Sequence to fold (212 residues):
Amino acid sequence: MGTAQLDALIAELNEQASMEQPAEETPDIGIIMGSDSDLDVMAGSESGRPGAYDILTDLGFEEQTDYENPPESTYTFETYVVSAHRTPELMYAYAETAADRGIDVIIAGAGGKSADLPNMTASIAYPLPVIGVPVQEKSLQSVIGMPQGAPIVAVDAGKSFNAALSATQILAREHTELRDRLLEYHENLKEDVAAVSEQLHSRGTPEFTDSR
Ligand code: RP5
Fold:
């Protein structure tokens, strides 16, 4: 069986790495996941909880689907499926070219008990920061269990939403606009809690429960 598409994808990443595109035109965040079955957790879904795609687009990021034609937004992310065990050469190529392709931070998610994509990507892309997302509870130890000297930042199982916030925090060190959006997001969270608290208290538990 041939690997034409895989080879083409790897060649494309390498070519992009040599292009020296201006920083404002390259994706800021690279989201990779072990399988498209991880997408509901990594992006967020209607039936489950919101994910990285949801909060990033809320914060004004746009998904970049064409490396040479960036979307309008100043802040962008890209998304790929990269399997550590089925396509190790793609994992290597993605991690090795990420910095030269202009990526500032990688969010890597994988499920199963051998969730090696986040930690291997962190080792290869070092010193680029990698935020690991254990797609399932059983992936947690595998993602966070890095040896001393080989760092990874990781979130709780399934919390790609928080991974995206952490990635934005890293970018916000250099972009005050992102810092302001993060602060506004947090203020809104506070307001939401206050509003719910006031409603629960003033309406009483039975009426509040019925109204939900
Ligand atoms: C699924 O296979 C998991 O969700 C994981 O992310 C994906 C890829 O695993 P490997 O192909 O890297 O073993 O079970």
Summary: The mean pLDDT is 97. The chain is about 45% helix and 10% strand. The beta strands are 29-33, 62-63, 76-81, 105-110, 130-134, 153-154. The pocket of 5-O-phosphono-beta-D-ribofuranose is lined by residues 34-35, 37-38, 83-86, 110-112, 117, 135 (CB under 6 Å).
